[in-house]
Amino acid sequence: MTQMTDPGFDSHIRKLMGWHFGADTGSPFWLGKLSGLGFDPLTEVQTLSDLTRFPDVSSELRSVPAQDLIPAGLADRPFRVYDSGGTTGSPKRVVDSAYRSLMTVWGRERLLANGVPPHGNWLHLGPSGPHVIGFDTARYAALGGGIFYTVDLDPRWVKRLLSQGRAADADEYVQHLLDQAETILESQDVTVLNTTPPLLEAICARPRLYELVRTRIRAIIWAGTSISGESLRQLSEVFFPTASVVGVYGNSLMGVAPQRAARPGDTHPCVFEPFPDTTRLQLVDDDGEPVAYGERGRVRLHLVAEEMFLPNILERDTAVRVEPVPGSPVDGLADVQTYRSLDDVAIIEGVY
Question: Which of 49, 195, 245, 264 lies 20 to 30 Å from 220, alpha-carbon distance?
Answer without folding.
Answer: 264
